[in-house]
Amino acid sequence: MPTPFATERQRAYIGVFDSGVGGLTVLRELYRQLPNESILYFGDTARLPYGTRSQAEILQFVREILTWMVQQGVKMAIMACNTSSALALEAVRREFKIPILGLILPGARAAVQQGSRIGVIATPATAASNAYRQAVQEVDETAEVWQVGCPEFVPLVEQNRISDPYTYQVAQEYLAPLLQQQIDTLVYGCTHYPHLAPVLRSLLPPSVKLVDPAVSVVAAAAQELELLGLRNIRLPLPTRFCVSGNPEQFAQVSVQWLGFTPTVEKINLPEVLSQIVS
């Protein structure tokens, strides 16, 4: 017989955060794989893109977001952001008591199952961290990995410019060194990038397999919830969408991937945190 507390915890939100709309690719997977879970989604749109920030800045942002999410009572957090996963995951796992999942190890495992010549497109910070190469080679030391930093992709997705000829031109430049290495697998090393699938697919040979770490991190989340007895078996609460920047802009850009217009709250993290402290 489950205790009332266990039932309460099971019904709690899973916190999902990213710098912007990229994490919606993880949210869609949560809807697909874990339809009973309630989600609190936070997009740090006032401070995007994360991919050109320093490790100290990223760590500060992630601490602020997680502190706020814990305050909202989340039972688990998913970093729907590869840059945060690469630069802050280990540190915050030691600091917070809730389970925190990142994208990189699940993504690396999925990539190794697909091929051995692995290309990774990522933000400059993720590419420079070498996190994907290390994770892939931990799983399979014979696999070869090439990483390319793609600074222009996140702003193009956030500005809803996916069909622009310029986006195709930029994508061609980013993919060129990977195609030269005859990759057999391409990892989306940023949650914004699956939104660019039509562009990337048109430029890649059909034999190159695309790996979306969102699929694997949600499968890992399902396992963890099961293990901890935290799976929700009741109906979920409506998804709560929050941003640090402009709510209308986020709602407008995200509608095409969500299939509905979300109601979006604006959260000013420093203000919220100062209220908590005082």
From TrEMBL:
Substrate binds at D18, S19, Y50, G51, N82, T83, T191, H192. InterPro entries: Asp/Glu/hydantoin_racemase, Asp/Glu_race, Asp/Glu_racemase_AS_1, Asp/Glu_racemase_AS_2, Glu_race. Pathway: Cell wall biogenesis; peptidoglycan biosynthesis. The active site is at C81, C190. One of its GO terms (molecular function) is glutamate racemase activity. Keywords: Cell shape, Cell wall biogenesis/degradation, Isomerase, Peptidoglycan synthesis. SUPFAM superfamilies: Aspartate/glutamate racemase. It holds the Pfam family Asp_Glu_race. Its EC number is 5.1.1.3. It catalyses: L-glutamate = D-glutamate. PANTHER family: GLUTAMATE RACEMASE. Belongs to the aspartate/glutamate racemases family. Provides the (R)-glutamate required for cell wall biosynthesis. HAMAP family: Glu_racemase (MF_00258). This is Glutamate racemase. It comes from Trichocoleus desertorum GB2-A4. The lineage of its organism: Bacteria, Bacillati, Cyanobacteriota, Cyanophyceae, Leptolyngbyales.
